[in-house]
Automatic annotation (TrEMBL), chain A:
Subcellular location(s) of the protein: Nucleus, Nucleolus
InterPro entries the UniProt entry points to: Csl4 (IPR039771), EXOSC1_C (IPR019495), Exosome_cplx_N_dom (IPR025721), NA-bd_OB-fold (IPR012340), S1_domain (IPR003029)
Organism the protein comes from: Sapajus apella
Alphabetical UniProt keywords: Cytoplasm, Exosome, rRNA processing
One example GO MF annotation: RNA binding
Source domain of life: Eukaryota
Record CDD domains: S1_CSL4
A Gene Ontology cellular-component term: nucleolus
GO biological process: rRNA processing
Major localization class: nucleus
The protein's name in its UniProt record: Exosome complex component CSL4 isoform X1
UniProtKB/TrEMBL annotation, chain B:
Superkingdom: Eukaryota
GO molecular function annotations of the record: RNA binding
Record protein name field: Exosome complex component RRP41
Species of origin: Sapajus apella
Gene that produces this protein: EXOSC4
Keywords per UniProt: Acetylation, Cytoplasm, Exosome, Nucleus, RNA-binding, rRNA processing
Domain Exoribonuclease phosphorolytic: 22-114, 117-181
One Pfam family linked to the record: RNase_PH_C
Length: 201, 207
């Protein structure tokens, strides 16, 4: 048995006892189909369960049903943004027709490698789509909450939209570097210095 | 896009890095498309090569690698996506196909792409009534029959078997067995190394 001290942000430091870990490689026979049911990272052949990834063997014992045998890699598998997912992204460049962003988070999970996304002019807001000016809506460096509408074409740029109430720019910095909050579609107020007045975005 | 799996293999005979990239180019509706590209550096052989990639040998090698890995990777789990495997030979001294396959297996493993089994490969030949395994460049250039075998060791299935030049069928069994035994030895070594790597990586990540 191996014990390890772990820090959990909500519960503080605690000692977690871990059972001995078994590592497996692709092609290794794990068990019979009668002893477990295949989970992720495994495949079945001739009545046996084999591993298809190099990682740790996990057996989750469920009540009544057969335990699910799965192989987990030490690093989590890449979470891909799916259509309809809410993503957090950072604007990298802007154009008169669209804004290019780097997708950093899917939901609340950070991504190891950022993906590229595009917010087209007509997807910025739901009303008055033709009067949108990208220069007034986004600036490079803004953090934006957006929703995926398409996986994109062969150039692998996700298509995103901010045309909903909860979506849009959430964090932005003004020219002097002060954090600003949103007043309307294209006006912002600088956060901590209200006496400076409003600045057009 | 940055590559997901990367492996640089220094080998006394042939040294080559292999890269895996995942992309979302939707190709086949029910499974992943495996795309392999082989290129050899201009300084890899005795005489400097003019065209590192795009020539006939590179295309053929890429095709063979693709056939090998389509047999091993569980492509049904990733429909409408493409798995690119790029292999570059830095130093060629015989057995380049086998070295490519072994390196690419480890790269695919590192990238976390589910595979049926390791793919271990080795070349073999037949000289003076003796079956030789893992031919060097000099032995290959001597002109005898050469066999390239890619094996899935756990099940004993053959992913690719290729031979040029003529060999009497009486000798085929011996040559094949020599290549298969060498491939199994490679598997034993890779097995050890991968398990150690997984153990070290999971200790580092504290999981």
């Amino acid at each position: 048995m191996r014990s390890r001290l772990r820090f959990h942000p909500d519960f503080g430091t605690a000692a977690i006892m871990a059972p001995p870990v078994r590592y497996c490689i692709p092609g290794e026979r794990l068990c019979n189909l009668e002893e477990g049911s295949p989970g992720s990272g495994t495949y079945t052949r001739h009545g046996y369960i084999f591993s298809s990834l190099a990682g740790c063997l996990m057996k989750s014992s469920e009540n009544g049903a057969l335990p699910v045998v799965s192989v987990m890699r030490e690093t989590e598998s890449q979470l891909l943004p799916d259509v309809g997912a809410i993503v957090t992204c950072k604007v990298s460049s802007i154009n008169s027709r669209f804004a290019k962003v780097h997708i950093l988070y899917v939901g609340s999970t950070p991504l190891k490698n950022s993906f590229r996304g595009t917010i087209r002019k007509e997807d910025v807001r739901a009303t008055e789509k033709d009067k949108v000016e990208i220069y007034k809506s986004f600036r490079p460096g803004d953090i934006v909450l957006a929703k995926v509408i398409s996986l994109g074409d062969a150039q692998s740029n996700y298509l995103l939209t901010t045309a909903e109430n909860e979506l849009g720019v959430v964090v932005a910095h003004s020219e002097s570097g002060v954090q600003i909050s949103q007043l309307s579609w294209c006006l912002r107020r600088r956060g901590f210095m209200p006496q400076r007045g409003r600045e057009p975005r | 896009m940055k590559p997901y799996g990367f492996l640089a293999v220094p080998r006394c005979d042939s040294a080559l890095p292999a890269k895996i990239r995942g992309s979302r180019a939707r190709a086949l509706p029910d499974r992943a498309l495996v795309n392999c590209q082989y290129s050899s550096a201009t300084f890899s052989t005795g005489e400097r090569k003019r065209r590192p990639h795009g020539d006939r040998k590179s295309c053929e090698m890429g095709l063979q690698l693709r056939q090998t890995f389509e047999a091993a990777i569980l492509t049904q789990l990733h429909p409408r996506s493409q798995i690119d495997i790029y292999v570059q030979v830095l130093q060629a001294d015989g057995g380049t196909y086998a070295a490519c396959v072994n390196a690419a297996t480890l790269a695919v493993l590192d990238a976390g792409i589910p595979m049926r089994d390791f793919v271990c490969a080795c070349s073999a030949g037949f000289v003076d009534g003796t079956a030789l395994a893992d031919l060097s460049h000099v032995e290959e250039a001597a002109g005898g029959p050469q066999l390239a075998l890619a094996l899935l060791p756990a099940s004993g299935q053959i992913a690719l078997l290729e031979m040029d030049a003529r060999l009497h069928e009486d000798h085929l069994e011996r040559v094949l067995e020599a290549a298969a035994q060498a491939a199994r030895d490679v598997h034993t070594l890779l097995d050890l190394v991968v398990r150690q790597h997984v153990r070290e990586a999971s200790i580092l990540l504290g999981d």
